Amino acid sequence: MSEIEHPKPGIDWETRAYWEGAKRHELILQRCSSCAAIQHRPRALCVSCFADTIEYFRASGRGSVYSYTITHQNQSPGFRNATPYVLAWVELEEGVRLLSNIVGCSPDKVRIGMPIEVDFADIDGEVAIPRFRPR
Amino acid sequence: MSISPKTVIAGAYEHPTRWAPDKTPWQIMAESARGALNDCGLELSDVDGLFTAGIEIGSMAVMQLAEYLNLKPRYLDGTNLGGSSFVAHVAHASAAIHAGLCSVALITYGSTAASNAMAIGTGGGSGQDAASGMISPYGLTTVGGYALCAQRHMEMYGTRSEDLAEIAVTTRRHAGLNPAAKMRTPITIDDVLSSRIISTPLHLLDCCITSDGGGALIITSAERAHDLKQKPVSVLGSGEAIWHPQIGNADLLELAAAQSGEQAFRQSGITPSEIDFCTIYDSFTITVLMTLENLGFCKAGEGASFVRDGRIGLGGELPINPDGGGLSSNHPGMRGVFLVIEAVRQLRGDCKGRQVDDARLGLVHGTGGLLSAFHSGATLILGNET
Ligand SMILES: [Zn+2]
User: Sign (positive/negative) of CA torsion B302, B304, B309, B312?
Assistant: First the structure.
């Protein structure tokens, strides 16, 4: 078993702030300054009030495991030699849920509700992928 | 009342193949169309509405199909909601017929997913557009998406692997009664639990099989169906919906089925307790259990006790997937069309060894896409009294 080799994400101008934040090892979320809604994934306008008043802020990076699965079979490059690995829905303290991997502990130690914090994997100095580890 | 009280499923045909390295998807679609037209006694030249979708056949599949069949329909629908597409197509065809936009609709599907060795369950998409970029770095597989829901369900409600296995065992028993099913050897709960883990908590035998295959349906008005060969099956209600992560507030236990089912029941004026049997998309055992909850056959969290004690088996209170479903009969990439075909066969009383007693009302529910990433649900309520 080896580490996951994360495929590089596609990036466009709507997700650039998120990925530039990740490169600085900051987890970035969007908040609307008109209605205070937080939204993820990033997009050009607030879909709660349809205003253009999107701001970015650095999230705490702390959260808990909302659900997880230990993946034993995945044929695709980057993952086929990394099984078993943990795929999880992570619930951030800010209330947002996102998909990620849990690293830094044995897969069989992962539990729903487990406290976790963000951890970044640098790829070729170009981009960094947010994952989570126990805290 | 139904949106389309006068539309019926007049013809239905399931292609017998489960392994077709010698056929193309287009050929399977065409052979299935021929089968469904023969079934009801209509000709290809009667078809003026055409519906299809697929995984490996491109985004303009319905145009390519029209060319293949040398048809110039006046109504075309290539809506692709994943595996539920063909269930939604029945509703779309009903609406189009009701609106006078076409009179005989052909819905057809064909796939060589298995002989082309598509890694449907554990391939893991790595799409490079920015939207999928939020997911693609993490190794989400199809099985993994459903497994995330299963794990959450177990945590919240105490659902056990044994409960999910009950669904696989029952479905395999049904497949044993269907000569066309691919996997017919009976299995036990222990067989499911001792099969290898694909993505916790789902085992190999919690997952649908892969096969080649296809099927077709003919939808028309009750008036037109009156002197055709088969007893028509009425479309009494329909609904479709999608679920997505809701700008970051995803609830993994809520399915599109809650919305599509509610609409179909309301439209038909029928309640869950009146339904005699269901065909439910069984990509995985958890899909069936959560779909039953979301359609309102039981409350959230009660799925595990609902599927016990033979309730969902033939002879039980609510038989599910009498043909053996995707878990045991066939699963060529997208399975929605077979859900409708089996419901039609049951409502005609044509199912010999696996016939649901006194089947009058059937519910069909298709799920497409990926639970916990985004998925679709399409529900139909069908009846045999016109
Ligand atoms: Zn707003």
Answer: positive
**Given this model, what pLDDT does residue B120 score?**
60
CA distance A94 to A60: 8
**Per the domain annotation, does B183 fall within a domain?**
no
List chain A residues with CB under 8 Å of B206.
Answer: none
The number of residues making up chain B comes to 386
Q: Which residue of chain B has the CA closest to A131?
A: B138
For ligand 1, the distance from its centroid to the CA atom of residue A56, given in whole angstroms, is 13
Please indicate, yes or no, if residue B124 is contained in any of the structural domains.
Answer: no
The answer to whether the CB atoms of B139 and A98 lie below 8 A apart is: no
Pair B53, B61: CB distance under 8 Å: yes
> Which residues in chain A show pLDDT less than 50?
none
Q: What is the pLDDT of residues B254-288, one digit of tens each?
A: 999 999 999 999 999 999 999 999 999 999 999 99
List the one residue out of B159, B210, B164 whose CA is nearest residue B187.
B164
Cis peptide before A134 (omega within 30 of 0): no
- Which residues 196-225 in chain B show a CB within 8 A of chain A? 196-202
Q: With CB atoms and an 8 Å threshold, state whether A10 touches B133.
A: yes
- B-chain CB neighbours of A89 within 8 Å are 148, 152, 250, 252, 372
Nearest 5°: CA angle at B255, between B252 and B260?
165
Q: Is residue B161 part of a domain?
A: no
> Domain containing B86: what range?
7-117+209-383
Q: Which residues are within 8 A (CB) of B372 and not within 5 positions of it... i.e. 6 or more apart?
A: A67, A89, B145, B146, B148, B149, B250, B252
Over the stretch B324-374, which tens digit does the pLDDT of each residue have?
A: 999 999 999 899 999 999 999 999 999 999 999 999 999 999 999 999 888
Task: Tell the burial category of B189 from Cβ atoms under 10 Å away from its Cβ (0-12, 13-18, 19+).
Answer: middle
CA B292 to chain centre: 14
B303: domain CATH number is: 3.40.47.10
Residue-wise pLDDT tens digits, B210-219: 999 999 999 9
B258 CA distance to ligand 1 middle (Å): 27
CA A127, distance to chain mean position in Å, is 13
Report how far residue B362's alpha carbon sits from residue B101's, in angstroms, rounded to the nearest whole number: 27
Inspect the interface and report whether the beta carbons of A69 and B199 lie closer than 8 Å: yes
Q: Which of B124, B138, B147 comes nearest A99 by C-beta?
A: B138
B22 within a domain of the structure (yes/no): yes
Q: Domain count of chain B?
A: 1
Rounded CA gap, A26 and B171, in Å?
Answer: 48
| Strand boundaries in A7-135, DSSP class E | 28-32, 38-39, 54-58, 62-71, 85-92, 97-102, 115-123, 127-134
